[in-house]
Amino acid sequence: MKNNLYQAKLKRRAAPAWLVLFVLILACLVYAQPAEDKSLTLPLGPKPYRGKFLLIEPGKLYSASKGQPIEFGRMMKEMKKARFIYLGETHDNLDMHEMQFRVIETLYRQDPNLAIGLEQITVDLQPVLDRWVAGQLDEKTFLKEIRWYVTWSFNYGYYRKIFDLAREKKLPLFALNAPRNIISKIRMQGYEALSEEEKKIVPPLDLSNEEHRWLLKTIFEAEEIPPQMKGANLEAMFEGLYRAQVAWDETMGTKAVEVAEATGRRVVVLAGSGHLLYNLGLNYRAWNKSRQPWATVIGIQVPGNSRIKVSRGLADFIYGVGEKDYPAYPAFSLSLKKVEGLTNLVVSANPTEPLARNAGFQKGDVILTVEDQPVSDIHDFRLMMAGHNWGDEIKVRVLRNGEVVWLNIRFDPELLKKKN
């Protein structure tokens, strides 16, 4: 789900391999679906829809209540009474972000008394969002101050139209997420390990929802998880991950309600679809606190000209997105760290991502220059990588075993196709 639809992101140390794999499985949940994905056909969600299914085709929008395709305008009319509108996403799918933008723009035309809540930003960075909406920051300064490529890491291009619309129309943006170090503490030690200040950010966790647990367990026990993850500590691993997932959902659901109450506005929430499936995630947590009506919209990527079978209870509205061979923006992933006494960045692990691996990076490489520019900050390095498009090539100079080595990064989508 984090996006869980969550991609594991590096800060100073790499996350354990089993955790990285699990969150990547969650992140791909609605992106490249196998024909028989058990998590999409569970008898969950509103009781009238259990045991009933939709066959999702690319380019079509479906209504759970009607059990058939629906026009976009009709969906927007049906959402008019919703105080909360949850728009799911697979973080690196541009079509899903285009749908988010279209919904937000239409909601604004219906009623400009609107606010946008963001999974992508942690609550400690709210002042930067305020300055962006006020027009006090240009895009480059905003990305640097909010440390977008450390805080979130997915290419800002996916979200640019939404952030620009918010600034143009003065729609307040609100950070909903908890800082990663707090979630990590909950995962590893439990909620009781939090300080009183941290508990002001993350509310008490309700771990009793057996349907939500079943959904997460179904994903966790998927056949894609390698056998080495299914050892004696499997249950303890799952419990830690489940605590983290609930902490995300409780925090974002609570913050969304606080935004609605403080501003009097309707609230649109942008979040990974894994936080919303079957209305069991942050949408359920927010409803428990507000009892206000809501609507959930998610996208499903459909391979080729096929159809995907999903439960009608998966969301209120579901749309099909055509499969792409590679994402709209290159995602260059390289594990980096800072070493005491050294200003340069150091590669902390041999890369597994195709673009970095093809360039020839190795664990221990010291980054000297990127395009002849020195770079000593992890965010600045990622910002530079994100500024390139498919077809670009750049030179990186590294120090390896006392010798200077030149590496060539090719942003070649064929490298991803070979991996797939």
Model description:
- With 420 residues, this protein is an alpha/beta fold.
- 36% of the residues lie in helices and 20% in strands.
- The protein has helices at residues 17-27, 72-78, 94-110, 126-133, 139-146, 148-151, 160-169, 180-189, 196-199, 210-220, 234-263, 282-290, 354-359, 378-386, 413-419; strands at 53-56, 61-63, 68-69, 84-89, 114-122, 173-177, 266-272, 294-302, 308-311, 317-322, 336-338, 345-347, 366-370, 393-400, 403-410.
- The chain has an eight-stranded mixed beta sheet, sandwiched between helices.
- Helix 8 (180-189) crosses helix 11 and helix 11 packs across helix 12 (282-290).
Topology, element by element:
Blueprint: H1 17-27, E1 53-56, E2 61-63, E3 68-69, H2 72-78, E4 84-89, H3 94-110, E5 114-122, H4 126-133, H5 139-146, H6 148-151, H7 160-169, E6 173-177, H8 180-189, H9 196-199, H10 210-220, H11 234-263, E7 266-272, H12 282-290, E8 294-302, E9 308-311, E10 317-322, E11 336-338, E12 345-347, H13 354-359, E13 366-370, H14 378-386, E14 393-400, E15 403-410, H15 413-419
Parallel strand pairs: 4-7, 4-8, 5-6, 5-7, 8-10
Antiparallel strand pairs: 1-9, 2-3, 2-10, 11-12, 13-14, 14-15
Helix pairs in contact: 8-11, 11-12
Question: Which of globular, elongated, flat, extended, rod-shaped describes the shape?
Answer: globular
Strand order of the largest sheet: 3-2-10-8-4-7-5-6
Characterize the largest beta sheet: strand count, sense, and whether it forms a barrel. 8 strands, mixed
Cα radius of gyration in angstroms: 21 Å
Instruction: Please state the structural category.
Output: alpha/beta
Q: What's the overall average pLDDT, rounded?
A: 90
Helix content: 25-40%
Parts with pLDDT < 50 across at least 5 consecutive residues:
1-18, 31-35
The count of DSSP E runs of length 2 or more, i.e. the number of strands, is: 15
Strand content: 15-25%
Continuous helix count: 15
Euclidean distance between termini CA atoms: 22 Å
SSE series:
HEEEHEHEHHHHEHHHHEHEEEEEHEHEEH
